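Trying the structure run again after the queue cleared.
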Amino acid sequence: EIPVVSLNDDGKIVLSEEQGLSDREPVNKEKRKINLSSIPFSLTCVIHKNYILADPTAEEESIMDTIVTVVLDSSSQLVSLHKPGGTVLAYTSAIQDCIALTRQRVKELQKILEEAISGMEVD
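Done. Tokens:
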């Protein structure tokens, strides 16, 4: 569910109930369920010179030049691409490589998810 949120004095979105802001006008008036048409899968890549490292640790992320997070849905359609700060990429090929790696990861994760679901006991 999406919780009820309000804006605090700094203009940041916060949970109304946790921040004691129930007296303020909520940004969204009621909780509601999120409806997803497909499952999103994400992969973060770090790029350093001509190298791409998929699924880095926090330590690896902290020492790399560029971080890119790609989110694809279960049909491998691009849902989101996030590249916070860092250096400007000279080539779009690095982003395309990250998307290709994410597509491979989606296939792997879908297989794992399907195996886990098929192995579950249903009453």
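Residues 92-118 form the longest helix (27 residues). Worth checking whether this holds up in the mutant runs.
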